[in-house]
Design goal:
Layout: E1 4-7, E2 10-13, E3 18-24, E4 32-39, E5 46-51, E6 58-60, E7 68-73, E8 78-83, E9 92-100, E10 113-114, E11 118-123
Parallel strand pairs: 2-11
Antiparallel strand pairs: 1-3, 3-8, 4-5, 4-9, 5-6, 7-8, 9-10, 9-11
């Protein structure tokens, strides 16, 4: 069983930065494709970013390109999401997800394991 634990959320002002972390309890972390998703109140969960087994293979939702950076440290079994220039519309619960896959996965249904989420609130 793979367990994911997010951390790093909080309350910030517009324009600030935050770094989210996702710690993974799996000895095969390097085989996992990892993703970040978010869900705002009364909205569906949406894709934020994904990173493949290779740290150079990444994909971002259009609204996050240039502001968010996804990364991973296989030695620490941890994935990160650096969020810069935060906007009020970035307010949501952010979830990390994992799946054993040779290719990037960009949709919620493609992931097998999920964290409990961490709240990010951006005030104007």
């Amino acid at each position: 069983q793979v367990q994911l634990v997010e951390s790093g959320g909080g309350l910030v002002q517009a324009g600030d930065s935050l770094r989210l972390s996702c710690a993974v309890s799996s000895r095969t972390f390097s085989l996992l494709v990892m993703g970040w998703f978010r869900q705002a109140p009364e909205k569906e969960r949406e894709f934020v970013a994904a990173i493949g087994r290779s740290t150079g293979n990444t994909n971002y939702a259009d609204s996050m390109k240039g502001r968010f950076t996804i990364s991973r440290d296989n030695g620490k079994r941890t994935m990160y999401l650096q969020m810069n220039s935060l906007k009020p519309e970035d307010t949501a619960v952010y979830y990390c997800a994992a799946v054993n896959s040779p290719r990037l996965v960009l949709h919620t249904g493609g992931y097998d394991y999920w964290g409990q989420g961490t709240q990010v609130t951006v005030s104007s």
